[in-house]
Amino acid sequence: MKIQALELAKCAKLADQISEILNLSPDIKQAFANTPRTIFAPSFADPFSLDAHPIDSGQWISSPLTVAKMTIALNAKNCDNVLEIGCGSGYQAAILSHLAHRIFSIERIETLANTAKARFKELGVNNVFVRFDDGNNGWSSYAPYDRILLSCGCVSVPERLFSQLKDGGILVAPVGQNQQQNIIKYTKFGDEITSQKLDVCEFVPLLSGRA
Fold it and tell me: Which residues are identified as catalytic?
């Protein structure tokens, strides 16, 4: 799929808007400018607004600002492999595909996983791999990961995910209950995990099982 010039112009304008607020690095700004949002957003919504929008199966596509905050915290530029828990629409993984070499994204809702796969194929994105599975289990086949991103909220990060993170690696997750969530950046040093609270957020919950 060749991305239309008008779409790219709107993506570039969106990247400028985000950067005015968050002062994006050149690499992250370019990732937003090069990622078409229309294909990921629901048809009834303005894909270039700064709002979150509901998608299928009670899930949401996060606002571009939230995606940017998570991407900044993850610091995935030139990383070899990144694990994402909660593929959803696929937009976050598409952004990361411009920064890291390989993205492994897990989605527990089969229809969303299949739709995301189709979108990546249509866009010619070849370094994002989507798996239909319970995200609590991670994806041990390709562990350990340089970076792990949870695109769903949890009360606490499952220990199994920390076990799949490289020494020196970073894990970013929305942590908290209900609407009391914060973006937390964890860094692993051997058996020690340090944490840094970054910003308030609101994500759908990390659930068990497959749907």
Answer: 62
